[in-house]
Design a protein that fits this description.
CATH class of the largest domain: Mainly Beta
Number of strands: 13
Distance between the termini: 148 Å
Shape: rod-shaped
Mean pLDDT: 83
CATH topology of the largest domain: Elongation Factor Tu (Ef-tu), domain 3
CATH architecture of the largest domain: Beta Barrel
Low-confidence stretches: none
Helix content: 10-25%
Order of helices and strands: HEEEEEEEEEEEEEH
Strand content: 25-35%
Radius of gyration: 41 Å
Length: 243
């Protein structure tokens, strides 16, 4: 308009000043918006970090239960790896874990009923899961109990007896057997004389050997380890009821 003499030079200069002022305000507003956007992004990151920190203040139990023991009080410092509470399940199910050599997997399967012992008390437990372990060629066997009749508490060690198989043969008491470098020998009594009967065990536990090499009606003697070492083949013995 100025070049066509439609407006005066004064009006033209005033319009240019207004334009530059508006342009400066626009650029300032854009810069302000960008600054606010960066601020909001920073606040968002702070909120996320606070939310992550908040997760560490919430303890979620892995199962329903009741607190049986408290290790820390309110205000105490919780240290990673250190227990805070002991929790006992209320669903009536208890778990026992047993680590055994990997080749034992051939003798146990899910559903087998095994035995656990504590302070002279015995209770059956059922194999629930067999868990391979990454180290030392071991497996972990998880057993469960429907009830706790032996008085075990969390993290307590209990004696666990796993059955490798069943033996339908003659059972020989452990204290009737002498185990030497040459093999296993049962203390057989024939006509009040000692006969060391060689046999091969099919299976054994803490109390008995199982074998098919010795008939079930054989008369056996018993002795402690030191006595076993001094008993000779053919030695006469005084049996119970004899004179």
């Amino acid at each position: 308009l100025y070049h066509h003499d439609a407006i005066s030079e004064e009006a033209f200069e005033k319009s240019q000043d207004l334009y530059q002022e508006a342009k400066s305000q626009y650029e300032a507003t854009i810069n302000q918006i960008e600054g606010l956007s960066q601020t909001m992004m920073g606040i968002g990151n702070q909120i996320k970090a606070l939310e992550d920190d908040l997760k560490y203040t919430t303890i979620v139990a892995p199962f329903d239960g009741v607190v049986s023991k408290r290790y820390l009080k309110e205000g105490n410092l919780a240290i990673p790896g250190k227990p805070i509470i002991d929790l006992e399940g209320t669903d009536g199910k208890y778990e026992v874990y047993v680590d055994v050599p990997q080749n034992f997997v051939n003798y146990v399967k899910v559903g087998d009923v095994e035995t656990i012992k504590l302070n002279g008390k015995t209770q059956n437990a059922t194999v629930e899961t067999i868990i391979p372990k990454a180290q030392n060629n071991m497996i972990s066997i998880k057993l469960y109990l429907d009830q706790n009749t032996i008085g075990a508490i969390p993290d307590m060690y209990v004696k666990t007896e796993l059955t490798k198989g069943q033996c339908s043969a003659t059972l020989i008491q452990k204290n009737a057997v002498n185990h030497t470098s040459k093999g296993y020998y049962a203390l057989e009594i024939i006509n009040n004389k000692v006969h060391w009967a060689a046999f091969t065990p099919i299976a054994r536990n803490d109390e008995y050997f199982c074998t098919k090499d010795i008939p079930p009606n054989v008369r056996l003697g018993i002795a402690n380890r030191s006595e076993m070492l001094s008993i000779q083949e053919g030695q006469k013995v005084l049996t119970e009821g004899s004179k």
